Amino acid sequence: MDHADEDADGVKGWGVPVAWDAYGDGSVNPANSVYTISTAIAVDALLNWMELDPEAPGEEILATVTASLLPFTAPEMRSPSGMIPYSVVESDRKYDTFNPAAYMAGQMQRFSRITPNVEFAKVLASTADETVEVLLKQKLVNPKTGSWYWHYSIQESIANDLPHASYIIDGLIKYETYGGRRSADIDLKATLSHLREFDDSKRDYVRAWPWLQEGIDRSARSYDIGMAMSLACSNADTVDLGPIFERYIPRFRDGSKGYLKYPVGDETADPLIVNEYEAYLYQGVIACDLARSRGDTKVTAVTPPNDANVLLDKPVLLSAEVPFVSFAPDDQSGATRVKTTPGDPSSFMMVKSGTAEISFDPGEIPIATDALGDGKVVFVRHIGQNTLTIEYRDAEGRRVDRRQVVHAAGRSEPMFRAATTYGNRLYLVYYDNFSVRNFATAYELNAGRLVQVMNPVELPSLEDPAGGTYEMIPAIFLLPRKNGIEIVGGVLSAQLHADGTLESTRINDCVRAIEAVSTPDGPAVLCHRLSRGDNVSRYFISAPRSLTLPSISPNAVPFHLEYDHGELSVQHARTPADFAAMFTFDLERIQQNGWMEFGVGNVEARIPWSQIYYLNGFLDLLKLSKEDGQMRNAFEHLVPKIRERLDLEVYWLGQHWKRGNYQTRAFTVDRSPALFAVQTSRLLLLLDRYLKELDAPTAISADTFQDLREAVHCLRDHIDVLAYGGELPHWMAGDRANLRWPKGSKFKFDGLAVPFNHQNEWAYSVIRTGTVQKCSQAPKAAQDIITHFVDHIAPSGILPNSGIWNYWWGTAYDGWTKDEGISVNYPEYTGDKSRAWISFKTIDTMSLLGSIDALPVSVRGNVLASAAHLIQLGRLYPFAAYELQRRGYKVNLDRDVALDYSRVSSPWELQNAVWAYRALLSEQ
């Protein structure tokens, strides 16, 4: 930018620092004259910088690019055919040269989508259209290959050499990517295929001119090869050319000095090393290296079996027993189950062989039970209201006492985490969403009444990898111990004494505790291993030194840790039957004995951030059981139970929506109820899957679904609003759609645009579920939002190979001062420059994949390849593969990634586990 007017003539742009007769016609352009191709290349680099680096000087870039493009929009600045000219020098305008015109047209079309000046945007787009119309008229077609190509100019009958052909291809790709009016008339596949005509593999040679050009047989330069590699490896149709061009690079190496213009020993070789040429070469090498790592991803077509309809294409009726809910036996008579009355999914009862049924009030579900005294305690949760109550039942099942668990009245309802009885005490651990902490307390039985005998004790952090606001995620295990209990959860191992004192330690090298059992000398814990190593299991057992540890195979998944007669044992999942057993084992013992989030209202946002994950997991398992033979072998017998549970949960989701129980208080500054678009969009996407993918989806009515669909598309009664603009131009075009929290609303960051994943999820749901007549603008706004994400995070549709990108954007990223008056609730802020957590990146990526048909054709292959790469390596959650599977592609997870996600210790993990099962079973 400091050199945008080197000749000081007031015209912004870039050129070369030498005088030059470009066409050999005697008209010598002065040094630093503004050339079209030089300016277009500089504009390309500046816009890349602005879009991909939030720290870039955006306003200065916008001003510089505007000033440099402005001269080329003048009516007189045209070649005879109507194209953008070779340079701003008048003597050059009489030539119709395709490559600079095409490259500049691509950048003009691109900037027309960025500039806040509406009139300037129209002029830029019109100028680009005029140039592309000439290119379309003048295109040539290779009769042998069908590829499109152009001569150097209308006045010359020689084909473009490799770099100039690349300029044209790049320009047309950019023009199509940014929605040029004539995009539909461009065959990008044919245009890109012209690059193949520079490959002369039989002679181990990359040509400077295509083999169709007679009379010129010369080696390409390092600059030429670098640019061609960058193009080829950034497009799925030509990525195979990368290694072909790359093999030729060593010939340019000049000892240890660098890379020459021409191959060493070539008749045109000279000792000159040009920084620009090397830069293009490095750019090409990096593009191909990234493509190679993506290309290692195993993406194969999926062919469903011929009899795929056998499993699911039939009505599924609700049976009496609630699937996957089981209370561990307190004697030898077997586990306690829960039943509901068919046709009345609000009445539940506990049943156990040889004992009387225990009924509960309508809308209440028993989530845990344990023997105490001559009877039993039962924890009860109320559907929709989330209140947690303890009941004491006598030996005949009659209610003797009932008390509500309260932590801080009026703030939030405690969430049950774990409970156990030991001696005459009942120990309970619950989570309080307001303080974002887990607490332990204890009760004793006194004359048939439960009396709280321990003030709540705040537990140390469980250190979930997602951070301190996710203390409700790791499973918690309560184990009897002398004079108290052991508490294991996350990486915490603690002893709570009867007097309420707590001693704690950390489990080293542990991501999270998966299982824990009691031994005389302390807890034995099956952990997910943090460190990595060759031929080392992803899991290990942490136990007292007095015990001999069972071996854990690095090639199987350990589960069902037991301590019996002084010995520890563990099973391994290897066969389809093993995986089915592990699946059932995990579900029946995780949160609230397999209830998970069943029936919860959304006050604390557990529906979108837990329940919807595992319900999608159920849908994924049903889908894969139809389409994958090994998954079918493992889970066919469980399909009816999964479907029954899915129907029952979806029924209550529909009821919550109709009754207004989907508002959340968890994220407003005053805990007032609000609907957030990212949450309602997740519900809409789930129910859309349920209705489209299952036969006889009777658990939700069409009216309820359509009401939800309209509410999401129109953002009816939401805290978020659909806005146009509102950010500085270097972040987005002035009229581009985005979601915002209005200034003065009750979210902490009022007055700001929502983060990428929030608005991407909304766009995903809108594009997936079609147009709502009342809000017909929503699909176009959704396309704007996805395009905005592509521009800033995934240029050309390529997600970062590192799997790292920013969580937020715009003013929320930059920060603001009190004087700017941006936000009421947060008057000043330095900005959120954090990286997106893996769950948010997965939402971004699934939104991108789910909206792929709304993207330009030129970027779609890159989106698929780069997403598959990140999924395979575990840089996104495995369940993101659903969107690839839906399009007929299969991603094979790396083995360690599949092992990492194969156990379910928290409800949300189920969705990842399903895809881990598929990967591990596929190896058999």
- Largest beta sheet: strand ordering: 13-14-15-16
Helix-residue proportion: 25-40%
Main β-sheet description:
4 strands, antiparallel
Mean pLDDT: 92
Low-confidence sequence ranges: 297-318
Please write out the topology.
Layout: H1 36-52, H2 58-69, H3 98-112, H4 118-138, E1 140-141, E2 148-149, E3 151-153, E4 156-159, H5 162-177, H6 188-192, E5 199-200, E6 205-206, H7 222-232, H8 241-246, E7 253-254, E8 258-259, H9 275-295, E9 299-301, E10 337-341, E11 344-351, E12 358-359, E13 364-372, E14 375-382, E15 388-393, E16 399-404, E17 415-422, E18 425-432, E19 437-446, E20 449-458, E21 476-481, E22 484-489, E23 492-497, E24 502-506, E25 510-517, E26 524-529, E27 539-542, E28 557-564, E29 567-573, H10 576-589, H11 606-627, H12 629-635, H13 639-659, H14 677-693, H15 702-714, E30 721-724, E31 737-741, E32 752-753, H16 756-768, H17 778-793, H18 811-814, H19 838-850, H20 857-872, H21 881-886, E33 889-891, H22 895-900, H23 910-922
Antiparallel strand pairs: 1-2, 3-4, 5-6, 7-8, 9-33, 10-11, 11-12, 13-14, 14-15, 15-16, 17-18, 18-19, 19-20, 21-22, 22-23, 23-24, 25-26, 26-27, 28-29, 30-31, 31-32
Helix pairs in contact: 1-2, 1-3, 3-4, 3-5, 5-7, 7-9, 9-20, 10-12, 11-12, 11-13, 11-14, 11-23, 14-15, 14-16, 16-17, 16-19
